[in-house]
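Usage example:
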Amino acid sequence: MSVSLEHYLVVSAVLFGIGLWIALAKRNAIIILMGIELMLNAVNLTLVAFNRFVTLADGRPALAGHVFVIFVITVAAAEAAVALALAVSVYRTRSTVDIEQIDLLKR
Amino acid sequence: MDGFGVTAAFWGLSALAVGSALGIMLARSLLHAVLWLILAFAGLAGLFVTLSADFVAVAQVLVYAGAVGVLVVFAIMLTPNSQTGNSETRMVGPGLFVASVVSGIMVYIATQTDWSTAARGDFPATALEIGTALTNRYLLPFEVASVLLIAAMVGAIVLVRAARDEPERRELAGEGEGEVNTAEAAGREVVAAGSHGGH
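Running the assembly step on the lines above writes:
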């Protein structure tokens, strides 16, 4: 049996779901960030899969998906750097990165 | 259509990526969770290779498995709060439900839609085309991305530096020497009183 576009989309959906579960259920802010990175990666897989299986009308191979993934990786790296700096900054003032204890706005 | 190698690689790498992603959820130690994450990134890079995205796969290994992985390890090392470990909040059940629903909807759409997929050719090399596209058609987003990276770098440095100055300043203010420090201490007390009044 051959591998079709649907296979990649299903794998991507499962990975996105796991990332969403991690982001929703975990207690540590850094692990939540890891879940978000996993979701971004699942979307990247979708973009590359579409780019591979869909060709342009004039027969040339598409390239927009790859370029889009490059930008997603760039933005995700910037986001990871800022978010982890925020986590370290929060830890230095509150001595925890447990999201249940970072509740200053609720009090 | 595909060779046996591509099919076997797809199933193996998919199992690696999904299993490693589940490993993040199930790992008891934070560092083990990071190692599972890096393994999931590596599996996804392999999936990119099976999709003929060689440049994206290399960027994935460099940026995600390399840079982001090391960054997360550093963040976990700098926040040594191992009392809670890699534990969950009470949202683990509802979170699983929501994630299952979202994932199920996406699987349903992916399998029910009639994608007009074209027959795939050989594995073309993409690095040259991506480079050409980034410097021609996508030049403006490329430059904006560089500005974004500078802003993120400066922002990360400022965030961590401002927090690092806090204890030193507090120590100086505690000694009560110098007008600036006492003035800062007074301002800090006002702020502290304001925040306590809000409780």
